[in-house]
Protein: Neuroblastoma-amplified sequence N-terminal domain-containing protein
Amino acid sequence: MAGEEENVLYDLLVHSEWLQESEAPPRGNRERGSVIVKTISGPFKFLVQYVGYSHSSSLLSPSFLLLVNKQINWQLVVARNGKLLAVVQDQCIEIRSARDEFGSVIGKCIVPKDPHPQWRCVTWSHDCTLLAYAESTGTVRVFDLMGSELFIILPATSSAGDLSYAVAGLIFLESSDNPQCSTELLVVNYRGQLKSYLVSVGTHQSYQENHSFNFNSHYSHGVITVIYHCDHKLLLVGGCEISEKGVSKAASYGITAWRVLSGAPYYKQVTNYEDDVGTSQRGFLKMLNFQGFWRRESKQDGVFKMSLSPDGTLLAVIHFSGQLTLWEIPSLRQQKEWKQDVQDGYDAINPDWVKSVEKRKKIKDKSSFYPLCDVNWWADNAVILARCSGALTVSSVRTLKNLLGQSCEWFEPSPEVSAAHDGSFMSLECEVKVAYKRHRLETNSFDDDEGEEDSDSDEESSAKARYFSYVKQGLYYLTEMERFAPPRKRPRTIAKTYRLVSLRSTTPEELYQRKIDNEEYGEALALAQAYDLDSDLVYQRQWRKSSVNIASIQDYLSKIRKRSWVLHECVERVPENVDAARELLQYGLKGTDLEALISIGKREDGGRFILPGDVDIDEIPYEGYVSPVEEMQRRKEKEAARRQELLQLVDFSMLTLEQKELCRCRLKLLIYLNRLATYEEILGGPHAAERGYDSEFFKKFRSQNIVLSARTYARESNIQALEILFTYHGSDLLPHRLAILSNFPETTTPHEYCFLLPEAR
Structure:
């Protein structure tokens, strides 16, 4: 059990983004006809809401309608094998493959724009070769992987605006008994009406109705969700809770299991003793049910979404009230139950919302953001939970502990999540931004805009208040009196950004490297400290991406411990200015001093870049402080004595390969530093060198044969540079003096460089 509570180390990756911009009509500027219609129909709607008369859509629970309306317009469906996903957009469905991490589109299905996009339904076939899409009207379209539409299944009955005919469950069965058909498609609408179709795909794409069934006898308020358990051949149906006596606990929560049969009646409810005893009682009570004449309880709970665990032994269910329950399969025995108010972090609000004035307007009713809006499985012992607030957690099924760490991961409100495959799951979120257009001549006419987001919500205002608002608007259009004039609204542009994101588990090493690649150096260093990783990688990347100067040497290079890497940078990298070049070479020399040589010989270095220890001036007594000159002289004498002691510890005839390599680097650094001093003199001294320094020239000059450099200056008739070379590198150049001087062009008079010629004494 200890392994179940281990936290998940994760990373977020954005696979794709879609930006939509639309012009929103100013609220309050309603057309005259619509206002009059609303004014007339207002009393009737008020009476309908108060009395509770049942029209076509009132079959569904108001709590369920509120949750559906909080969902984003687009949908995300991942195939069973995790290799394909479909992103349902406004007028198309994009099919993406895991081969390129869902980065490109391999197929696109064209679908008509739906007036109720949250009520659409999509599913993959068992073999991931077909995609079924259901509109809010109940029409079903079947596509192949390339996005070609194979056929359309029209609903037997439908009514415009009646969302109870929308599809609650769209299921492909794994096989069909009919050899001429490749699969069977089940379509279940919210009224509980099931239709079975035999689908044939190949040379002839067609379908035929197989049978029909109705769950309405058990779910008087309709079916909310249906999923299929292929191993047990069970249909798991969720609906509103049943408050009747004599039913099992699962049935009272609105959950039932139906076994799929090969013949009529095709589906049989899996019951226990309590269900069997209560069946006759429920039949009599339904005859006395006057629900249609009286207002239904708006707080009625029920099943919102269900999800099966990867091994098929547990069913996770989220309810209208935000409750989470776990049930054993196939017995439907309840294993765990967490009401909303006992779930950790259920009332948390995105910290970014608190900082934003625009966001704070939308969280006036915070409790509406608390419920769970989606559920899926991370593993057999952990579920993925998403809330209307955008909070997302991976929680243990034993304790509901958040395995992502101390706090949840924040997404945009009501994200959709898929089941996890290979330690990663997909999520679809929608970020909404509203931009207001301000007219030049209008300055103070929009003072009422601050509260318009909240005042426009039908859920927050009562039917009575809306009716009087319609009357006021109607009076304005009839009388044109300013006292009845509605407040003017600024035109708005709504920008929606849909984002496809994956949350994937990772090893500390992988996440560490990814943080470095994304230049998130602070988080990378925190990971290195937490998991004992090599922090050199962070400083190496920062060093490579920064210009060389004293600050970068102190901030980055001095914190790198690997000696070979530091020395390579000191030797090979040529900074862009002369001061940085000198500082870098001197820093490399410090790491190749006697302390490092001795440590390597004793094998105490561990490959680290070792700097010589400074003389501790605290050991010098107060009386020893004299004039600065004497103090400097005393320091030099002490350092010389220390150096002699260190030299006695080194046997230069018995150096190891690492010690020889260190000496070779030191020699090269000394040569480069000497050449840098020569280059500064050629440029005219340290001050002139700051302006005339050329890093590309110095890179060539410092490693070039000094005789070749002198010949080049002679050919260019650069007498001053040649004089400096003879002065500072006489031991190398004087034996070749005449050969070098013979390279002066014939046009250069010998009187100009006669002082470079040898003289007889």
User: Anything to note?
Assistant: The two ends are 97 Å apart (CA to CA). The longest strand covers residues 10-24. The first helix runs from residue 32 to 51.
